[in-house]
């Protein structure tokens, strides 16, 4: 949502410059954070066992259309973004640093478990400490590969 809001504000700027600060932030968000990691991870785990990421009990509060708005609709919109809008991908070292910061910040879900005793995603409760560490490193590897794929796709299209 942050990316699409920023992209809309950027597009509405009169006489916008391709190299403006706003445009660079938009491109950073797109290249590092918006590419379809959530769609890939969510639906892979959901297909394996929905209770691990989106328990059926949630359906009473969030109907299926909201689930698809959060986890499905973003994919075609992001792919459309690749096709209609060129993005200036940041230097690889800056992008990987940003991915690392977000990855470390995401570890705050462990803090939620430590303080409240409930895992944000039930899947995480099934891992040992070593398994949890491996899962986070695996996810960071996938995110990095998706960044590289997005960079390559952007280069091929534009």
Automatic annotation (TrEMBL):
Pfam families: Far-17a_AIG1. The keyword Cell inner membrane does not apply. It is a multi-pass membrane protein. GO terms for cellular component: endomembrane system; membrane. Keywords: Membrane, Transmembrane, Transmembrane helix. It is found in: Endomembrane system. It comes from the Eukaryota. It catalyses: 13-(9Z-octadecenoyloxy)-octadecanoate + H2O = 13-hydroxy-octadecanoate + (9Z)-octadecenoate + H(+); 12-(9Z-octadecenoyloxy)-octadecanoate + H2O = 12-hydroxyoctadecanoate + (9Z)-octadecenoate + H(+); 9-octadecanoyloxy-octadecanoate + H2O = 9-hydroxy-octadecanoate + octadecanoate + H(+); 9-hexadecanoyloxy-octadecanoate + H2O = 9-hydroxy-octadecanoate + hexadecanoate + H(+). The chain crosses the membrane at residues 28-48, 68-84, 96-121, 127-149. Its main location: membrane. The keyword Metal-binding does not apply. Belongs to the AIG1 family. PANTHER family: ANDROGEN-DEPENDENT TFPI-REGULATING PROTEIN-LIKE, ANDROGEN-INDUCED PROTEIN 1-RELATED. This is Androgen-dependent TFPI-regulating protein.
